[in-house]
Structure formats: C-alpha cells, structure tokens
Design brief:
The strands form 5 sheets. Strands 6-5-4-3-11-1-12-13-2-14 form a 10-stranded mixed β-sheet, with helices on both faces. α5 runs parallel beside α6. It contains 11 helices and 20 strands. It folds into 2 domains: 328 residues, Alkaline Phosphatase, subunit A (3-Layer(aba) Sandwich); 81 residues, Arylsulfatase, C-terminal domain. About 3% of the residues have low confidence. The chain is 23% helix and 18% strand. It is of the alpha/beta class. Bound molecules: 2-acetamido-2-deoxy-6-O-sulfo-beta-D-galactopyranose and calcium ion. 2-acetamido-2-deoxy-6-O-sulfo-beta-D-galactopyranose (NG6) binds next to loops.
Length: 512
C-alpha cells in the first residue's frame, strides 16, 4: 500500500471513530446501602464491626471523605440519584407509602434511560421505594406499571417499598413473583377485618417487638406499616433478602457480561426490620444492626467475586454509597442503640437519618475500577445525584437540556484524575419537599430550617426534634459537628449563602 493511501485510510478510520474517541463505557454497578452511616464500616473507622470486602474497594479505589447522598431519607435520595434532579423541586417525593403510585413519571430522563440510550443494558435489583403504578397506585394482582421499566431499566427484581412496609413480595418486571391468582394480594391502610392479627392484638407472638409505629399486619413474626392479606405463595422471609439480591444480580451480570451494563444494586441492609440471614446473626458486636452490615459486606464480596470469575473486573466500575445517614431505633426494639457502645454510626459528625446535619447525608462513598482507578483518598465533594451526568459524560452521552437538572459532571474526580474537582456547592435536604436544607460551599455550611425544627440526634424519631432559628452558619474546617453558629461573626458569608440557596431553589435547576 502506498503511503498516501495508507494515510488516507488511517485518517478515514480516525474520523469514523471520532465521536467515540473520548467515550469510555465500563460496566457500572452502583451499590446503594440503606441507612448506612459514615462511621459504620471499618474503612471509615468502625472497629466493632468488620467489613473486609468494602474495605478492599476502599483500598484499591478512591475513598471519598466528602461523599454524599442528596437527602437524609430514602425516597428523595433515590429520586435524585435516578433523575439527577433535586427531589425537593417536586411534591410527593417524601418517604413513599405502601400503595404509592410511581414517583418518577414516565418520560422523565433518568440515569438508566440515559445509559440505555448509549447502548447499556440496565437493571435494578433490590429495594425500590419509589412507588409503582399510575395515579391510582399499584395493581398488585395485575401489571405493575409504570415502574422501573418505563423509566429506562430493562429488568427489575424488587422489594417494592421498604421491608418495614407491606407487602413482603418480590416484583419481577411487571409482576409479583409467584403470585397465585386464587389467593389475590390486597394491600391497604385500614384493618381489613376485626379479627386481622396485628402487632397490637398479637404482640406477644412477635419475634421482634415494635417500639413506635410498625404495629399493623404481621408477617414472619414481624409487624409492619400497613395491612395486607393474600399472596401467601409469593411472600418471602426477611432473612433471605440479601441472598435473593445476590443470586439475581449474579444471574443478570452473567447474562450481560459482554456489556456494557448498568446495575443498580439497592441493598435493604441495614434498614429496619434488621433481620439478617441466620448465618450472619451474632457476627458483629453490634446487635442485628451490625450483623446487617456484615451481610451487606458479604454481598459486596460476592459481586466482586462474580466480576472476577467472569474476568470483567478490569472493565467494571463499582460505586459504593448509602441512601441516608444512620438511625438507631427506627421503630423496632432491636437493641441497636444499646449495643453501640463506643461505635459511632455517624463517624465524627452530628445528626443522622432525617437531619440536614452532615451525619444525615455524608456517608461512605467509594469508587473502584481496577483497570482505571489508582488508589487514593479524596476530599472532593461528590454526591449520588452526580452519577447521572458523570457516567453519561464518561460514556459520551449528551444530557438533555430539560432534564438531569442538578447533576454535575464530576467524573474526573470520581476517577481520581490529578487536579480534578468535585462540586462547588451541594444542597442537602431531609424528607419530602424541603422543610429543611443544608448548603455546603467549600468549608462553609448553611442550614435552613423552614420547619423551625432540626433533628440532630441518632435516636428515636420522637426524641430527635429541637427548635432552631431558620438559618445558621458553620465552618466545617473547624467545627465538623456544626455546633458554633457563625451567622453573626460572618454576616457577609451568611447573607451570600442564604441568597445562593434561595436562588438554587427558585431557579428550578442548578445545571445550566
Ligand atoms: C418512617 C418510619 C421509619 C422508616 C422511615 C423510612 C415510623 C414511625 N417510622 O416513617 O421506620 O421506615 O419512615 O425510611 O413509621 S427510609 O430509609 O426508607 O427513608
Ligand atoms: Ca434509607
């Protein structure tokens, strides 16, 4: 071949590959833990529970010290993670009840629909808690849609809500798995008959007692939020959830090993009721709460083992995160608080689940990709809400102008590239449509309590409220526990931060 022809061919090949040159499409697994606090795993300082598999991700990957979820409860964090948009912008994004309709409406661009448009196979396996069905709610005996499949997931295998809410059944794609039509499933919020056993009428039969709420229908010796009847053949044991997530994930990964794939592995550990499998019971010094952490760690190890068996670990990125900070007594008398001793679930921070103190949303956050990421500890601010824009950017997928409104492309920080920056500002929220906010900019932290109340103690919901002024300012570089309100000492910073937060809320978006 003459030189000219060779150069022309090379040039043509280069041009043809052009749009894909910067794209990298690793497989991605987002492992989201439930109610896991900053201090709950050994890589982040825990000593009374051991988490070797998660620690290995941290050692071989990037361990973030300012990694966040968006909200201090589950539904709004998951909403923001999927849609790349702050949940407080929308009504009905607070903790979803058992019969909640789908919270993310079809037509909304999500991390899954974006990646699917870029050639990814997509699945969610585990806890959903984002509602199913149209405005009238889920049709438990029929087609459960819209759901994940209508917003970008090719496959779903779900616990529909949280396991302290009814019903205890798996939803595979659009159907309740193993449902016998002769024994239809009914779910409601009123006692279905006078003789229906509940946590109140049959309290002495329970294998784990409730402490507040959670006293309606009993299944597997545990009373729940809400009532249900029927669907007996479809019901699972709490003890088997983690095994089910791992089995289904292994199967799906194997089927899609040629990639690229995106798996949202939504663990239920360590949400209440904390009922780990018998083989994990007693495996930590921290009651069932710690044993659930050991179980979560086992799940992580199993997923990594699968990637290695299939020889795809060099081309797979794992993001390990949590959906909100920790909580002690969340409605069941499971001794979690009593067993804590010197274990600090929220690490060095104050607050946990339900609060906008750092402990509510600053959680373990690790990225791992053996073929790409060099081990490091990073102080950059990154958040689960950023995964949509960041993964899309890595894969060369364009963001829509009218969606993914608050997700920033921080992929260079997630991959640990030298000098890469995380977010310049981050809004934190508690539950629902923003009664309380946090705004972090550098080391400044503004709290805004529209409710006039802050939740600042990792104990029961009932005891956790304290009255506070609407706005407060803290310097996280010297006051990680947010105890010295500097509003009067730094009035300019205070006014700037108040205005910045108000603008982010009013603008309806923060990505332009
Ligand atoms: C609260 C529940 C709590 C937990 C939480 C949701 C009561 C008294 N408390 O309303 O137990 O289920 O909702 O947790 O019912 S989350 O992690 O899914 O957001
Ligand atoms: Ca949660």
């Amino acid at each position: 071949m003459n030189r000219l022809l060779r150069h022309t061919l090379l040039l043509l090949a280069f041009l043809a590959a052009g749009p894909f040159l910067s794209a990298e499409k690793p497989n991605v697994i987002v492992i989201m833990a439930d109610d896991l606090g900053y201090g709950d795993i050994s890589a982040y300082g825990a000593t009374r529970v051991k988490t070797p598999h998660i620690d290995q991700l941290a050692e071989e990957g990037i361990q973030f010290t300012s990694g966040y979820c968006s909200a201090s409860t589950c539904t709004p964090t998951r909403y923001s993670f999927l849609t790349g948009t702050y949940a407080f912008r929308f009504p009905n994004t607070g903790i979803a009840p058992p019969n909640s309709p789908a919270v993310v409406k079809p037509g909304t661009e999500t991390i899954a629909s974006l990646l699917r448009s870029g050639g990814y196979k997509t699945a969610v396996i585990g806890k959903w808690h984002l509602g199913l069905g149209g405005p009238e709610g889920p049709d438990w005996n029929g087609e459960l849609k819209p759901g994940p499949r209508e917003i970008g997931f090719d496959y779903n295998f779900l616990l529909p809500t949280t396991n302290d809410r009814v019903p205890q059944v798996y939803v595979e794609n659009h159907r309740v798995l193993n449902l016998d039509p002769a024994d239809p499933l009914w779910v409601g919020n009123k006692k279905p008959s006078d003789d229906h056993p509940t946590g109140i009428t049959h309290r002495d039969t329970l294998k784990m007692d409730w402490s507040h709420g959670h006293n309606s229908t009993i299944h597997n010796g545990i009373s729940r939020i809400g009532f249900y009847t029927g669907g007996h053949a479809a019901r699972f044991r709490d003890e088997d959830l983690a095994d089910a997530w791992v089995d289904q994930s292994n199967k799906w990964i194997e089927e899609n090993k040629d990639g690229p794939f995106f798996l949202f592995f939504a663990s239920h550990d360590l949400h209440v009721p904390r009922i780990p499998h018998e083989r994990f019971q007693g495996k930590s010094e921290l009651s069932f709460r710690g044993d659930a952490i050991v179980q979560l760690d086992w799940c992580v190890g199993e997923l990594v083992k699968t990637l290695k068996r299939l020889e795809i670990e060099d081309n797979t990125m794992i993001v390990f995160c949590s959906d909100n900070g920790p909580v002690g007594d969340d409605g069941y008398a499971d001794e979690a608080l009593e067993a804590n001793g010197d274990h600090s679930p929220n690490g060095p921070f104050k607050g946990g689940k339900y609060s906008v103190y750092e402990g509510g949303t600053r959680t373990p956050f690790i990225t791992w990709w053996p073929g790409k990421i060099k081990p490091a500890v990073s102080e950059e601010v990154v958040c689960t809400i950023d995964l949509a824009a960041s993964l899309a950017s890595m894969a060369g997928i364009e963001l829509p102008s009218d969606g993914i409104l608050d997700s920033f492309d921080v992929h260079e920080a997630l991959l640990g590239e030298p000098g890469a920056k995380g977010r310049g500002h981050l809004v934190q929220q508690d539950n629902g449509k923003g009664n309380n906010y946090g705004l972090r900019v550098g080391n400044w932290k503004l709290q805004r309590h529209d409710s006039g109340k802050a939740r600042n103690i990792v104990v029961t919901n009932k005891l956790a409220n304290t009255n506070v002024s609407r706005h407060r300012l803290y310097d996280l570089s010297t006051d990680i526990r947010e105890e010295n309100n500097l509003a009067a000492v730094h009035p300019e910073v205070f006014e700037d931060m108040k205005a910045q937060l108000a603008k982010i809320i009013e603008d309806g978006r923060s990505r332009f």
